[in-house]
Every structure is written in C-alpha cells, then in structure tokens.
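Forum > Structural Biology > Help requests

Title: Can anyone predict the 3D structure of DUF4352 domain-containing protein?

Hi all, first post here. I have the sequence for DUF4352 domain-containing protein but no way to get a structure on my laptop. I'd be grateful if someone could post the structure tokens.
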Amino acid sequence: MRIPRLLRGALAAVLLLAAWGIGQITLPEDAGQEPFVTTTGVGQGARTRNLEATVAAARTADRVSAESGWSAEGNWLVVEVEAAAGTASGPATLALAELRVDGRTYSVTDRTEGIAGTALVDGVPRAGSLAFELPEQQRGGAATLRLSGAADVRSDAVIEVPLDLGALPREQSLALTPAGWAR
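Reply #1:
Sure, ran it for you. Structure tokens for DUF4352 domain-containing protein below:
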C-alpha cells in the first residue's frame, strides 16, 4: 500500500509540529532543582523553612566604614537585615546573601564583618548590615537581593527582595551596623 506524496508531506508536517510543541512544554533538566522563592519587600518580613528575615532598609553610599576602623570608597549598596533561624532543626546561619543585577551576581563583601554567616537562633532575631560593592556604572536599575539559610539553594528556600537601585537614598558615607541582637 502506497501513501500518496501529499499525505506523506502533511503527516511529516504534523509530526514536526508535534515535536516542536513537546519541546516547548518540556521542562529544563534542572527544573526540579529550582529554589522555592518567597518574595517580599523592604520593611516586610518573610519566613522560609530555614530562615526568617526582614530587610529593614536599603541605601547606597560613596563610602562605607566599620567599627573596626576599616573603610572603603566606591559604589556601595548597604542593606540592613534582621534574621532568625526558621523552623529547621540544627544550627542555622545566614549562609547566602547575594545581589543579582542585570544578569550578574554580586556577593556580600568579605572585607569587613557583617551579618552574613552569623549564627541564628529560632525566634530571636539578629541584626546587621550587608554591604555589596558594585561597579561605578551600576547606580541604577532593577536588582534582587537573595537571602537563604543554605549556601546551596538547589531545591531549597530563598527569600528575594526586589530593589530599584536608582530609587534608593544615596549617602556620602555610611557606617555599617555590626551583627548583634535585634531590638
């Protein structure tokens, strides 16, 4: 039995269209590892499995300084955070603090102490600063602050706080708040 040429062409087109459709709805390989995101705003708290956090304030500055006497000039984003352990058992820390801007990821500075990496207790918040040094040309644009009690957030929880860098108050100089108990 021979299938007419026109019918074969139509069948091939239908099969190609079906293959394209399946490709469009198929999830990427790492889809099962995406973090569980909780989005909140400045001044609003969020709670995940392993972290409870509130971004109390976000500002930019031309210079930052710490109690230790350290200081640095540059284009800085300073975020004041209150954080406590979530409901997970075991020791907890603010293990992840990163900023995403225009497809780039910036880590919190390690040149001075802050709340990042601080041991956290359930129900008793700690407070302190997170400082991010950004390129000089990055004075505006949409950014996302990401916080987690886990350094590896694959299939874990992340708190995300959207920020508009251009709309944040800009200070000449800011003193970083050392990690301590929240008030």
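The longest strand covers residues 51-65. The chain has one domain: 32-181.
Shout if anything looks off.
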